[in-house]
Here is the input.
Amino acid sequence: MSALTRSPAWQALQAHQHALARHHLREWFAADPARAQRFTLSAAGITADFSKHRTDGRALDLLHALARQQDVEGWRDRMLRGDAVNATETRAALHTALRRAPSTPLRVAGEDVMPPIAEVLARMRAFCTAVRSGERTGHTGARFTDVVNLGIGGSDLGPAMVTEALAPYGSPALRVHYVSNVDAADLAPRLARLDASTTLFVICSKTFTTIETMTNAASARDWLVGALGAPEAVGAHFVAVSTNLEATRAFGIAPDNVFGFRDWVGGRYSLWSPVGLSTMLAIGPEAFDALLAGARAMDEHFARAPLEANLPVRVGLLGVWYANFFGAHTHAVLPYDQRLRRLPDHLQQLEMESNGKSVDRDGRRVDYATCPVIWGSPGTNGQHAFYQLLHQGTQLIPSDFLIVREPHHALVQHHRLLIANCLAQTEALAFGKTAAQARAELSARGIDGARLELLAANQTFPGNQPSTTFVLDRLDPASVGALVAMYEHKVLVQSAIWNINPFDQWGVELGKTLAMRLGVWLEPGAARPDTATAPGLDASTRALIDRLRS
Ligand code: F6P
Here is the structure.
């Protein structure tokens, strides 16, 4: 047994879960009319109703004791002040510095990290203003109408999600596209619809070695040079976002067109850095500043609020409660706002790449569950697809429902229905429908006997499915910033409980190495080697390669 599962806080939670497991949310709500108020927290413009969770006051007390035992506050403080919390890569994880008030110095290893952050932000602002105003043009002097962000993972998901969430802040005069997949079915049709003379490419890659991004960048460069008939046009149409200045120079991008950042910004935490350049091009520097300010408000709350009133802490601890004490394997993210359509994708990388680990900080195998599978899609679409399983399946699946009070559109009838659906789902999941209620309804419709029993069994909803309802007043830059920062801190809280490093991602390396090796066997033309001579190629992969080559 690990020290964690042996620990008093863990054992106490296990015992309490056994006592609570037989209780139903129906009973708790009936017994406590103030439950909704008691279990609601607010911070940085986000209100979260946690009352539909299978917790009582004691469960929360025990979860807070676990957080103290696992030094959540210590890990938080060490991360925020720039200690090397990413031990395997011996570096800090300082994404919070990117949204810190510029006037507050932050010294890391003797250096104030704030001036270079302010400097690159100022360059981003100047660049975006020049592109958006038409002052900065393409090679032919034509104004840019389209931006194509070439990046993958953290260099795509976060920026793309925020750009879509904040589409009302965009300008119709500048469309921003995101291309990530090495499958040219992503890039080719997009290029086919664009005019090279008015297209700006942002090559976004922290390392500038990621094969998908570099392949897309090379094809985009060929397309541009071919279309404009001028190799020198690359300078006007390509900018880069990277920590690897040597590689950006080798690609042909002048240092003036490179927006750099430091290696202590992790890919999935990087949308606040120059990785957000395409987002800033889309929504403008002012809205980007408001995005940073929203995240900063959440950071300040996370840093200062006591554990008991701390929103990201509560979100993280409830995830632990279900993953470790109820055996939940997955967690659903269900935004009732079409513009948050890509939030589940971003959170998949943020949470699963961070906490999808099975060795602890000391390299020992863990004997407890870590990150659950994060998944989801926007309401109301999901209701007509997978909600059946949430309501009547065999698994406990905690979920996050997100709603926005004021829409950006004028179709109030749509919004009323959207909100009604969101609330109805959380209500149905929590309270369900008893067999007695189902029987009474069927009997009132004149159904009886064996048919009544059959239908009653099918029309009973067990309920007791936990959910949080997050309410945002508006989907604006500040609230989106606060929301994403809240989930980032959730990851830190859970990593502290699970005693794992959330800032590395060794699990993605093996596949990358193998793909490079296998590429040789898939070269077109007669010169490619015979797979029979391939050392160490397993029989399944060999057969698949032969099939694909034939
Ligand atoms: O393969 C995983 C990963 O390293 C992510 O962590 C990262 O966000 C993504 O690849 C892209 O990396 P880069 O920005 O260096 O191209």
Q: What stands out?
A: The longest strand covers residues 399-406.
